[in-house]
Write a structure and sequence with these properties.
Helix content is 45%, strand content 20%. It is of the alpha/beta class. It has 2 domains: 109 residues, 2-Layer Sandwich (Histidine-containing Protein, Chain: A); 82 residues, Histidine-containing Protein, Chain: A (2-Layer Sandwich). The termini are far apart.
Length: 220
Amino acid sequence: MTPSMNRTQRTVCTALAITALAAGLSACAPLIVGGAVMGGVMAVDRRTAGTQIEDEGIELRAANRIRETLGDRAHVNITSYNRQALLTGEVPSALDREKVEKIMAQVDNTRSVVNDLAVMPPSSLSQRSTDTFITGKVRASLVDANDISANSFKVVTERNVVYLMGRVSQREAQRATEIARGVSNVSKVVRVFEILSDEELRRIATQPAPVTQDAPATSR
């Protein structure tokens, strides 16, 4: 088996695995926390461990408040990265769109809000499945790239539009955009990046990883 065949098979398998996981988690939920696929692992993420926990809290608190306000009338995806909240999905009216943004902005620790909600009927299950598969293919393509770290990016897809989030350099942002644009069925790439300087990236790279301590043993 040739190296090129190995890489192709690995890419396809990664995409399928991510797709299956995301579909299993979100297929029945009208409001999704964290977008289609969560990007990054705490040990290699460029956010601090505390910020990653804050992002999870932001997503959960916002999801509860939006569900209480709109119920099942809207399909809203909430993705927080470094306390910047991205809103994607569909809402019934412009008033609901504004209402969701206000709710999001009032969630504790939210630094800023990017509102890309569409005023239209909720997307079909078929469309959401397509979006999930696109997210998997983009993630797999980022993993296969030799010149960037896939764990520096979070990927969300909505109606064939790919959203890229992360704390990255200008070069990394451009490279990831090119990769996402090269994935089949992607109609548009929206960048929601925090651009870092080379000095900032070096400083992050030299920071010690968080230490995980084992729980003390208990006697029976």
